Structures are given as C-alpha cells and as structure tokens.
C-alpha cells in the first residue's frame, strides 16, 4: 500500500473513529502489571548501561573487547532513551508525576534537554504528526525533503544515499546545536516556546549538558588518550543517533504514511484518524528478532498505539495492538503496518528516493 497524499487532503470526518482508543485500552490491572514490568526493565537497562560503561572505561582489555563494550553501551543508551526517557517525558513511567519527570530527565544524561524535548516531541510532533510546518521531526531542510509539500533542492536527488549517514549525527545535534539554538531564539523551528525558560530551567539544562560531558568524555580521558576517547565517543554517539533516527523514520517517513498541510483537521474527533493516517506500526514474524526489537525500541514498533495513547506504558502496547487492529477492521478504518523490519527499512528507502525526485509542477506552475 503506497500513498502519497495530495497537499490538501484531509482525514474524512465521515469515518467513525472516536472510540478506537477506548476499545484498544488495557484494563487498569493490565496497565499496573505493565508499569511494574517497565520499572524492572528500567533496572535492567541501568545495569546494562553501567556495566558496559564501566567495562569500556576501566577494564584492562584490548581494542576488540573494548569495541564490543562500546556496542553494548550504544544499545543501552538507545534502550534508555526509548524505554525510560520516552515513557518518563510522556508521564507514562509512573502514576507519580515527579517519578516520571525524573525518568524523563535521563535524556539530559544522553545530552538532550528533557525540558525542551517535551515541547518539541509531545506538543509539536504528537499534536501535529506529519503536518508540514508544525511537526519539526519531519523538517530536515535543507538536508532532506521528507514530505511532498516541502520545497525540493537539487541535492535531494541523492538523499536516499547520504541521509543514512547523516542520521547518525542526531545526538550530537541535540547536544551541541539544537537545544542551544532553541534557548537562544526561544523557538523550536518557527514555533515559540509556550513559556520562556526560567533561570532554574536554564541551569538544569546546562547541568545536564555538563553531566553528559563529564561521564562521556572527561572521566574516560583520565584513563585513556584523548584521541581514543573522542573516537569512541563519536562512534558510539553516531550509532545511537542512527538507531534513534530510524526508529522514528520507519514509523512516519515511509510510503505507507501520509503528510498534510497546516489546515488539516487533527483535533477532537479528527485526532484518531489523523494519527492512523500518519503513523505505521512494525511487525516481525521471527520471535527472537521481534522481542529484541520491541525491547530496544521501547515498544515503538507499536507507534500507532503510542500516538493514540501516549500516557500508556510501552510495556502494554502488545496488548493494545491486536485490539486496535481488530476494531479498525470492524470500523473499516485502515490500520497501517509494516509486515517486517526489512519491509519498514525498504519503505523508508523508497520514500527518500521518491521525495528526492524533482517534483512535476502541477497546473499553474505551483510546486507542492
């Protein structure tokens, strides 16, 4: 199923969808069990991260074992971002808002401000998924054209080649550029922060940057040559960025999702249909691969369920998924899903190539 939405196509208000979220929701007991699993998983991730970091920095081993520890550390960082930070910043980690906020602050350990991330991700992305001009996650200009309504540049014809490499710089962009630019301008893209950060907020953001710099670079440099530490840091950071970027792209920037202009209805009764048209799940038939991906992706192989109910702990998504698929089938609403991880990757590759082609001007010479 390949769909490229016309610039002014909207979800049809005639399709019945307002009850889809309620129909898929786990029970209170299932949510409580899922949250306990989430807390245990957070403990496992913490042990994995601390163990791999300790072995990488302090163990007297050779290059290849150190590289293996670095690989495990990268997986632990990705799992921390998807399985702890993400739930925390959505308020899904705990029924206690303060505990969720502490879990969300783990993004600061990874170099990205949780304070700014909540506005960029929770408000702009979730509230305006794949809406050009609002969803800053699909705004990768001038490097990439990810929606048919975005302007085309000659170098975009090669984006299906070079963007895979650029994805790896996501975390460095968070740490060095994105957050600092937002603080200076008071905006994320063209959208002003709802409240200017207080001195306390700026201090916490700065402290998070310093904490990341300390554990990731300064402490290792006490035990190893600076050039070796920098090489490992850039390699691990690139891998973390590459994996995190792809987790998002495979759900939204694919030829099975749709893109809209700012006048698209996406609130109230239109919310569910909009999310179903702009978000795609991933399935995998191989149990071991499926479980490993689900664990590392923090349940974001079920992005549709997450977008409909972002306060659900991700450890309940597997319960919600089959229910949502069944109720969508009954209601005649399209439920978009990649049948495998390789299918998802190919779908994103096709989309990059399609958006990289020079668009044909419609009548009147206006390029979408």
Architecture overview:
The chain crosses the membrane at residues 42-61, 161-180, 201-223, 229-248. Residues 1-12 have a biased composition (Low complexity). Residues 1-20 are annotated as: Disordered. Residues 64-337 form the Fatty acid desaturase domain. Keywords: Membrane, Transmembrane, Transmembrane helix. The chain is mainly alpha-helical. It has one domain. It has helices spanning 20-24, 28-58, 63-89, 97-104, 106-109, 114-127, 159-166, 170-185, 199-221, 226-252, 271-278, 287-296, 303-308, 317-331, 341-356, and strands at residues 187-188, 191-192, 281-282, 337-338. The strands form 2 sheets. Strands 1-2 form a two-stranded antiparallel ribbon. A hairpin with a 2-residue loop joins β1 and β2. α2 runs antiparallel to α3 (63-89) and α10 crosses α15 (341-356). It is globular, with a radius of gyration of 21 Å. The chain starts with 19 loop residues before the first helix and ends in a 12-residue tail after the last helix. The model is unreliable at 1-18 and 363-368 (pLDDT under 50).
Any descriptors?
single chain; 368 residues; two-stranded antiparallel sheet; disordered C terminus; oxidoreductase activity, acting on paired donors, with oxidation of a pair of donors resulting in the reduction of molecular oxygen to two molecules of water
Give a topology summary.
Elements: H1 20-24, H2 28-58, H3 63-89, H4 97-104, H5 106-109, H6 114-127, H7 159-166, H8 170-185, E1 187-188, E2 191-192, H9 199-221, H10 226-252, H11 271-278, E3 281-282, H12 287-296, H13 303-308, H14 317-331, E4 337-338, H15 341-356
Parallel strand pairs: 3-4
Antiparallel strand pairs: 1-2
Helix pairs in contact: 2-3, 3-4, 3-10, 9-10, 10-15
Transmembrane segments: 42-61, 161-180, 201-223, 229-248
GO molecular function: oxidoreductase activity, acting on paired donors, with oxidation of a pair of donors resulting in the reduction of molecular oxygen to two molecules of water
Domain Fatty acid desaturase: 64-337
